[in-house]
Amino acid sequence: MNNPTENRTNSAHEPIFTSATGTTTDSTAAAAPAPFDGARNRERIRRAMTAYFVLGPQDVEPLGRTVLDAVKQALAGGITFLQLRAKPGDAGDILELARQISAILPQGEPGIDRPYFVIDDRVDVAWAARQEGLQVDGVHVGQTDLPVRHVRALLGDDAVIGLSTGSVTEAQAAAPLADIIDYVGIGPYHDTISKADAPDGLGAERFAAVSRAARPLPNCAIGGITPEDAPQIAANGGDGLCVISFICRAPSIEHAAYELRSAWENAR
C-alpha cells in the first residue's frame, strides 16, 4: 500500500500540523479570526473537526490492539483531533494512558503542530493531566456530566471543552454558552454499536437542524460515521467527521484515518 501521506496537499483552509509522518506546519491556522486565541481559537477548532478519532481500551483490546499502537497509526494517517474515552476506567489508569499518548504526540500547539487531545467525561483526569504539563487540551462531556460552567471553572480559561448534543433543544441550550463551550459533537448520525445506550440515528435532516441551532459553535458528526457520509454531512452544516469503529475496526488504522481525513477535505 502506498504511504497514505503521499500526495497530500496543503491549503489555508485545512488543519495542518506536524504529524508522525512529517506533515508541514501552516502558520495561517493561528491567524484565523476568532473570539479566543491559542488552543481555543474557534476557527482553528473548526478546522480540527476534520478527522476526529475517539478510542479507549474497550474499542481496541478485544481486537488484539493497544491504545498506544492505535494512536500511533492514526497519527500517521493524519487525524486532527483525538479523544481518549476509557469505559469503564479508573482515574489512575486513564491518567497513565493520557501520559503515554501525550508523550507520542508531536510537540507544540494543538491544531497547528499536532492534533487536539481531550479526555472524555473525566474532568478530574483532564485537570490532573494538565497539572502535570501533559499535552491534554481539555475534556469532552455529555449532557448528564458536570455542567459546563463548572467544568470551565475547574479547568480554567484556556482549556478546550466539547459537549455532546443530540437534539435541537440541546443545541439551542449550548449555543448561548459559546464563551464556555468550544465545540459540540452531534449525534448519533446513524444507529451505532459503539455506545450501548445511544438513541436512534438523527439522519441528514435532523442533523442539519441541530447543526444550525448550535451555531456559532464548531461541530462534528458522530455515530456510525464512514467516509461515504462526508458529502451529506458537509452539505448539512457539519464541520467534520468523528469516528470510533471505522478506524478501530479497520484492517489498517493508518489507512482508515487517511481515508476519513481525505473524504472530508474532498467534500467541503
Number of helices: 11
Largest beta sheet: what is the strand line-up?
1-2-3-4-5-6-7-8
The count of strands amounts to 8
Query: What order do the helices and strands follow?
Result: HEHHEHEHEHEHEHEHEHH
Helix-and-strand structural type: alpha/beta
Share of helix among residues? 25-40%
Percentage of residues in strands: 5-15%
The shape is: globular
Distance between the termini: 26 Å
Structure summarized in a few sentences:
With 268 residues, the protein is α/β, with parallel strands linked by helices. The protein has 11 helices and 8 strands.
Protein architecture, described:
The chain is an alpha/beta fold and 268 residues long. 36% of the residues lie in helices and 13% in strands. The chain is built from 11 helices and 8 strands. Strand 6, helix 8 (203-214) and strand 7 (219-222) form a beta-alpha-beta unit. Helix 3 packs parallel to helix 11 and helix 4 crosses helix 5. The radius of gyration is 17 Å and the shape is globular. The two termini are 26 Å apart. Mean pLDDT is 88; it is low at 1-16 and 18-35.
